[in-house]
Specification:
Elements: H1 5-9, H2 14-21, H3 26-33, H4 37-44, H5 52-61, H6 66-74, E1 84-88, E2 91-97, E3 101-108, E4 113-114, E5 123-131, E6 134-138, E7 141-145, E8 150-154, E9 160-163, E10 167-175
C-alpha cells in the first residue's frame, strides 16, 4: 500500500500548536479565516489534504506567510550546525549561520576596530555587549554600549565598531522578512 504523501511530507498538527499558543479555539480560527471548523479540525489531525487557499487563510490568522506555515508543517526537527572561527579587523569571532539568521560571538581588545564588517546583506543587525564597552558609529549617530546594552540597526548602513575596553559581544543578523 502506498504511503499517504500528504502526511509523509507535511504534519499539519502544527496548526493546533500555533492555535493553542495564541489562545485561539478552532471556532476563532474558522471565523477569522472563513475556513470551516471541520476542515481545520481534519487538518490538525492530518486527515485531509491541505488546499493552498485554505493554508493562506489560516496562516493570516496567525500572522504568518503561507510559506512559513508550510515550513513549520514540513520541518518538525531542529537543525544543528557547527561554529566557524574567523578574524575581522581586530575582532575574533565564532559564527553560526542559518537561512534566516547569523550569530557572531566576538572578542576585541581595547582599541580594537572593524570598519568593514563582513557578512552584510539587507539584514537587521543587533549588537549586544556582554562585557566591556564598545562604540558603534552609524552614518548619523553614535552609540556607546556597556554590559547588558544592545542596539538594533539596518546592517546595510555603513558602520564601525570600536572597542573602548576589552569587549565580549554578540552580534545577530536577522534576514528582513519578505513583504507581502
Amino acid at each position: 500500500m502506498a504511503p499517504n504523501l500528504n502526511q509523509a511530507m507535511f504534519d499539519f498538527s502544527v496548526i493546533r500548536e500555533i492555535r493553542k499558543a495564541k489562545g485561539l479555539t478552532i471556532e476563532n480560527v474558522s471565523q477569522q479565516s472563513g475556513v470551516s471548523i471541520s476542515v481545520i479540525s481534519k487538518l490538525e489531525r492530518n486527515q485531509t489534504i491541505a488546499e493552498l487557499e485554505t493554508l493562506f487563510r489560516i496562516s493570516r490568522v496567525f500572522g504568518l506567510n503561507t510559506t512559513d506555515l508550510l515550513s513549520l508543517a514540513e520541518s518538525r526537527t531542529a537543525h544543528g550546525t557547527k561554529a566557524k572561527v574567523y578574524k575581522s579587523g581586530d575582532f575574533d569571532f565564532s559564527t553560526i549561520s542559518y537561512a534566516n539568521a547569523q550569530c557572531f560571538h566576538g572578542y576585541a581588545p581595547k582599541g580594537g576596530r572593524v570598519s568593514r564588517p563582513e557578512m552584510h546583506h539587507d539584514d537587521y543587525e543587533i549588537c549586544w555587549v556582554l562585557k566591556g564597552k564598545i562604540c558603534i558609529t552609524l552614518p548619523h549617530e553614535t552609540h556607546i554600549l556597556g554590559p547588558g546594552d544592545a542596539v538594533q540597526f539596518d546592517a546595510i548602513l555603513t558602520h564601525t565598531y570600536e572597542s573602548l575596553e576589552n569587549t565580549e559581544l554578540l552580534i545577530i543578523h536577522l534576514n528582513k522578512g519578505k513583504r507581502f
